[in-house]
Amino acid sequence: MLEIRHLRTLSALRSAGSLVRAAQLLNLTQSALSHQIKLLEDRYGGPLFERKTVPIGFTATGARLLRLADTLLPEIEQAERDVARLSQGDQGQLRVALECHTCFDWLMPVMDEFRQRWPEVEIDLVSGFHSEPCDLLRAGNADLVIGSNYASEFTTFPLFRFEILTVMALKHKLQAKRRLQAADFEGETLITYPVPESRIDLIREVLKPAGIHYQRRTAELTVAVLQLVASRRGVAALPNWAIKNYVDYDYVSARPVGDQGLWSDLFVSVPDALRQKAFVLDFVNVIREQCARTLDGIELLS
Predict the structure, then answer these.
(1) One digit per residue, pLDDT tens: the chain, 302 residues?
(2) Is the CA virtual torsion 302, 127, 277, 135 positive or negative?
């Protein structure tokens, strides 16, 4: 029998663009997702999508079921939100604090989508960027933190994992290397956001342990960092999704760090009192859904 979870699976496949990312979005193993799809295809007597196309191309059968999903799922999700409002109330506040400067780029569309779903909830950004945003939770000056670190005293929801790449000017001497090692940064100027060095993955995980000497220069905005890099003032280390367009248009070049790459995880943290609030859970879901659909090179965390 066709079930709601099957429609959600097809919708996730379209949003995520691959079986791997759809499984992450649905919090399923890839084998469980493949089994579910096989049962559906056995029921309807043929494939629902083309396995070898990127992004996924749906067959006529799959496209018809997607149209059904587009009709039913918004109604079901709206009903679930309405029920949550009846049981929990329809008012609330969500003051969001950011540890990650580049998160701002994808957070604005997320907040726009959230406001459409929860117009009664007042959502706003806590002014500025914060190297220790969990202190704002402790002080009651924020309701939700997005960052790479979290404290065990708060409820934490995993978002996604991303690779940090070294960004350099075109024809920079390091561009000749496929991967960079710690020694390659000796004597380089590293352009960073104005945060403590302990919060910068490249410094904390790579340069400091290897005893590498470097200069440091700071800039507030991502575009300012990239302008300095492009004008040969130094190199930077930024998330893969934050620099993709600049690399694609040959404004700068990028290289991975280390044999396995330099990776970081992103989380949402909230006080325990908010952990079961429907609008908080939905905010996390909107982040995961939109980022799976729009950010290249991330891996959703489960």
Answers:
(1) 889 999 999 998 988 888 888 888 888 888 999 999 999 999 999 999 988 777 788 999 999 999 999 999 988 888 887 777 766 665 678 999 988 878 888 999 999 999 998 988 989 998 766 667 888 999 999 999 998 877 789 999 999 999 999 999 999 999 999 999 999 999 999 999 988 898 899 999 999 999 999 999 999 889 999 999 999 999 999 999 999 999 999 999 999 999 999 999 999 999 999 998 989 999 999 999 899 888 988 988 88
(2) positive
Residue type present at position 248: D
User: Rounded to an integer, what distance in angstroms lies between the CA atom of residue 71 and that of residue 64?
Assistant: 11
The three-point CA angle 62-68-73 to 5° equals 120
The CA-atom distances, in angstroms, between 168 and each of 48, 155, 230, 246, 285 are 43, 38, 7, 11, 34
List all residues 6 or more positions away from 138 whose beta carbon is below 8 Å from its beta carbon. Answer: none
CA distances from 126 to 134, 137, 159, 241, 274 (A): 12, 11, 20, 24, 17
CA atoms within 13 A on the CB side of 245: 7
Characterize 174-208 residue by residue with b for buried, 16 or more Cβ atoms within 10 angstroms of its Cβ, and e for exposed: eeeeeebebebbeebbbbbbebeeebbbbbebbbe
Evaluate whether 284 touches 173 at the Cβ level (below 8 Å).
no
CA 59: distance to chain centroid?
Answer: 29
Contacting residues for 88 by C-beta, under 8 A, at least 6 apart? 277, 278
